[in-house]
Amino acid sequence: MKAKVHVMLKNGVLDPQGEAIRHSLGTLGFEGVGSVRQGKVIELDLAEGTTEDKVREMCEKLLANTVIESYAIEMG
């Protein structure tokens, strides 16, 4: 069983990497990009029967800094 965890900075939290990407896209001639938010995807290979609640617990304890980041879980 696999799970993907998408981690992003919460709205209102400064994203210097996203701003650097936006600036670089403009430098390369890609116009019209208003803002960029950069995040990460964590792919987990889980034992059968692992629940979404267990993955949520992993996120809360380690995978995401819930003070400044939000996360979404895809099970499948």
Features:
single chain; 76 residues; alpha+beta; Mth169, Chain: A; 2 helices; 32% helix; cytoplasm; ligase; phosphoribosylformylglycinamidine synthase activity; Phosphoribosylformylglycinamidine synthase subunit PurS; PurS
Order of helices and strands: EHEHE
CATH level 3 topology: Mth169, Chain: A
| Rg for CA atoms | 16 Å
CATH class: Alpha Beta
Proportion of beta-strand residues: 25-35%
Estimate the global geometry from the Cα principal axes.
Answer: elongated
Number of domains as seen in the coordinates:
1
Poorly predicted sequence stretches spanning 5 or more consecutive residues: none
Number of helices: 2
Q: Which class best fits the helix and strand makeup?
A: alpha+beta
Strand order of the largest sheet: 2-1-3
Secondary structure: number of strands? 3
Q: What's the architecture in CATH terms?
A: 2-Layer Sandwich
Mean pLDDT: 97
- Main sheet attributes: strand count, strand direction, barrel closure: 3 strands, antiparallel
Distance between the termini: 6 Å
Q: Helix fraction?
A: 25-40%
Subcellular location: Cytoplasm
GO molecular function, one term: phosphoribosylformylglycinamidine synthase activity
Pathway: Purine metabolism; IMP biosynthesis via de novo pathway; 5-amino-1-(5-phospho-D-ribosyl)imidazole from N(2)-formyl-N(1)-(5-phospho-D-ribosyl)glycinamide: step 1/2
Pfam families: PurS
